[in-house]
């Protein structure tokens, strides 16, 4: 065995000498109990209501130098308790310096029923599963179970740095029951399975130098309350060699994660069907790149340099991260991340859920496709809000506040995870697309509001853009075409780089050029004095683009600014009520495509120039 000592000194040598002496004095405990009774996988389905009295192969009462066993399948050597056969083992008591090892040679599950245990080890994993068909940890209702390791291990496998977690399993590991489990991992990881890790229930608290929970092949969480404070990733599945492995699936539960690196990280897919999530990664969104940030250098995250973990993937501090796909069908999320809050190297599907996001980089980023199909997303802080090569907004509501672009359709991968400032993406393709098909999209951007390296197509929904106040950006910015076939668009901002949708649009577009302040009403009335549209921009500017099915080609409208409205305002748009008291800008008859009124600059139905970076915006208060 190789001694991996993070803090070299004489204390550990003295400890080894003490352990040797202790072993010599514990011959009365060096007994082997032969197994004559074993259980099969049915042991894993014992009723949780009867788990404290579950039929067991053996009952183990832990006590330093005086551990006792009633039953079969257990051997004791000093303070090392080894389970040698499949079955169920009811364990209670305290080991101040010892270890439970599972080393079963048969093809049966091993279930450890933790009935109020406290195990500390100064040299290895307090619970170490070397061999078992499946390992099960059952937490007895009403009990607290504490597992603590040290910052120094005597490694059984120095080449692979194993074991390297306070609870370490080479085989599948399942944790169930309604009791509590506290894991203090001072060496590296908290709970590790080299195969599949399943959490069925329980109140689990992990504090770790490295990753909190790590299932190489997968992590599956059905329920329970998990509180994780990790120097590395909160949850990690790391199998990058098998495309059917390396995934994380969460169906429910409450997860509170503070991670130095990624909150949730999978080498293939992350699927979340429900649950409550509070995730902070990399010190949170305050640890972003800016001239005023003195907390850390952006891009330097994670555990102290003494951590022994060797990761194959590059370090990042994202909230939820997957290499292949992220699909979220439901749940409640609060994410405060230094890096992207939700990130995939391929695709993301948001089908439901409620999100409060604050990001030091992108709010939601997919290298290829971002499908927004439902849910309620509120991005209160980001460098860029929504980013992917192709962005499909189909349903749901999305509020985006960004220091640069609100919605950015580009191409390529996000390289900002490891160096440079946020948003420093390696995008090169010119085929970025934004499809606006339904739902509500509200953007408050200091850079471009909607920015497509390719084209934008709007078929439905409501899109409200409060764009930049500086003249180096525009509320709309696209390189190809922006065709509007349906839905409601309001885009307000500065006039220097203002760009209207394309003249090939089938829905009328009104471009209004007038100076306005934050909250100044812009009203459109029909010839007979009917209020058609009233909007209050959230920032000052000189350009407003409006397209809505309520506007008809060939009809004449009067546009006014200022005044008041008795209507109900939602996200700057007034409904019901009446408008009065404004100053008329002028009257105009709409053409089939784009009609302008007032003083306009920028580009009509064509490409605008390259924008710059602005300051921080804000979501309006209704």
From TrEMBL:
Compositionally biased residues, Low complexity: 286-295
Bias (Gly residues): 603-622
Disordered: annotated segments: 280-299, 601-622
Short name of one Pfam family: Cthe_2159
Superkingdom of origin organism: Bacteria
Signal peptide boundaries: 1-23
This protein's UniProt keywords: Lipoprotein, Signal
The UniProt record lists the keyword Signal: yes
Identification of the protein by name: Lipoprotein
Taxonomic source organism: Turicibacter sanguinis PC909
């Amino acid at each position: 065995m190789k001694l991996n000592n993070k803090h070299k000194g004489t204390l550990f040598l003295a400890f080894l000498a003490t352990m040797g002496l202790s072993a010599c004095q514990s011959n009365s405990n060096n007994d082997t109990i032969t197994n004559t009774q074993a259980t099969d996988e049915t042991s894993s389905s014992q009723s949780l209501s009867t788990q404290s009295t579950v039929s067991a192969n053996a009952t183990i009462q832990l006590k330093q130098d005086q551990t006792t066993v009633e039953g079969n399948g257990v051997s004791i050597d000093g303070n090392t308790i080894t389970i040698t056969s499949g079955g169920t083992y009811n364990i209670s008591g305290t080991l101040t310096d010892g270890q439970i090892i599972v080393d079963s040679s048969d093809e049966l599950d091993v279930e450890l029923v933790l009935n109020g245990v406290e195990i500390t080890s100064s040299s290895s994993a307090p619970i170490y599963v070397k061999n078992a068909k499946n390992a099960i940890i059952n937490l007895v209702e009403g009990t607290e179970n504490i597992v603590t390791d040290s910052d120094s291990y005597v490694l059984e496998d120095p080449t692979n740095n194993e074991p390297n977690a306070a609870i370490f399993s080479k085989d599948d590991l399942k944790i169930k029951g309604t009791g509590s489990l506290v894991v203090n991992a001072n060496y590296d990881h908290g709970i590790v399975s080299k195969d599949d890790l399943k959490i069925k229930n329980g109140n689990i608290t992990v504090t770790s130098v490295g990753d909190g929970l790590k299932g190489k092949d997968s992590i599956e969480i059905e329920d329970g309350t998990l509180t994780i404070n990790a120097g590395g990733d909160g949850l990690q599945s790391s199998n990058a060699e098998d495309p059917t492995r390396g995934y994380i699936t969460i169906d429910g539960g409450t997860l509170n994660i503070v991670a130095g690196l990624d909150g949730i990280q999978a080498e293939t897919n992350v699927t979340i069907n429900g649950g409550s999530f509070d995730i902070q990664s990399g010190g949170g969104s305050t640890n972003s790149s800016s001239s005023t940030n003195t907390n850390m250098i952006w891009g330097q995250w994670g555990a102290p340099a003494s951590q022994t973990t060797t990761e194959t993937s590059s370090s990042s501090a994202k909230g939820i991260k997957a290499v292949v796909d992220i699909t979220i069908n439901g749940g409640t999320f609060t994410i405060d991340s230094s890096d992207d809050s939700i990130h995939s190297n391929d695709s993301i599907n948001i089908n439901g859920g409620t999100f409060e996001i604050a990001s030091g980089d992108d709010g939601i980023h997919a290298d290829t496709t971002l499908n927004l199909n439902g849910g309620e997303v509120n991005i209160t802080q980001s460098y860029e809000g929504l980013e992917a090569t192709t962005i499909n907004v189909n349903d749901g509501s999305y509020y985006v506040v960004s220091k640069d672009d609100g919605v950015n359709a580009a191409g390529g991968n996000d390289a900002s995870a490891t160096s440079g400032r946020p948003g420093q993406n390696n995008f090169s393709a010119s085929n970025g697309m934004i499809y606006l098909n339904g739902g509500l999209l509200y953007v408050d951007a200091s850079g471009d509001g909607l920015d497509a390296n390719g084209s934008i197509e709007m078929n439905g929904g409501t899109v409200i853009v409060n764009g930049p106040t500086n003249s180096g950006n525009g509320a709309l910015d696209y390189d190809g075409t922006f065709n509007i076939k349906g839905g409601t668009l309001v885009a307000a901002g500065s006039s220097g780089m203002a760009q209207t949708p394309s003249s090939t649009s089938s829905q009328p577009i009104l471009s209004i050029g007038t100076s306005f302040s934050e909250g100044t009403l812009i009203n459109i009335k029909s010839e007979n004095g009917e209020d058609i549209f009233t909007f209050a921009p959230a920032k000052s500017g000189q350009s407003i683009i409006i397209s809505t099915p309520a506007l008809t080609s060939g009809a004449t409208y009067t546009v006014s600014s200022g005044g008041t409205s008795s209507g109900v305002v939602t996200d700057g748009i007034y409904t019901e009520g009446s408008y009065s008291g404004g100053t008329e800008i002028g009257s105009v008859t709409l053409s089939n495509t784009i009609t302008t009124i007032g003083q306009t600059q920028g580009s009509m139905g064509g490409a605008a120039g390259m924008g710059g970076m602005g300051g921080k915006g804000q979501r309006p208060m209704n």
